[in-house]
Amino acid sequence: MNRLALVAFTALLPVSLAAQIGAVPSRLVEVETERSRACVSTLRQIAVLDRVLAPIVTRGTRLGEIAEAVALEDRMMVEPFESSDETEVLVQNWFTTDAALAQRYVMSEDSGVLAERQAGRETIKAVITEALTTVQQYADSVLTANT
Q: For the chain, how many helices (H) and strands (E)?
């Protein structure tokens, strides 16, 4: 039934309409050439942004991994630490200090040690948040400068 309807529709299709469907618009080549030029330029800009943003993305990803490791108290997730990076050195030191505090708490069950651990955790979380904010601000400035 559907085939019959299609055949009937095609047979009734005016010849002039069929000719219009098959005709190439007079400015098609010009329009498509200009569109291609615009696309090539845009693709070049995107490639530049990709190259510029790649290290920023890497840094942001690393900081996210560090934040997760701190939340889980699992330094092995992010070892080895980069000794030339101030944030990573602070995180490494926090892990060392926190492990010592955890050991002290196990021995003493002193609630003051728990408070000290919590304060240290909040401090290192603030350090990581600040580093992530700095990365985001830099990425935003790169995007603003290149758009």
A: 5, 0
Which of 47, 48, 45, 66 minimizes the C-alpha distance to 135? 66
Tens digits of residue pLDDT in 67-97: 999 999 999 999 999 999 999 999 999 999 9
Closest to 65 (Cα-Cα) out of 43, 45, 103, 91: 91
Alpha-carbon gap, residue 121 to 115, rounded angstroms? 10
Containing H/E element for 28? helix 28-72
In terms of average pLDDT, the best of 7-11, 34-38, 113-117 is: 113-117
Per the CB < 8 A criterion, the answer to whether 136 and 63 are in contact is no
Comparing CA positions, the residue from 65, 69, 73 lying closest to residue 103 is 73
- Using CA atoms, how far apart are residues 102 and 114, in angstroms rounded to an integer? 8
Tell me the whole-structure pTM to 2 decimals.
0.70
Tokens describing residue 84: 């030339």
Q: Where are the domains of the chain?
A: 57-145
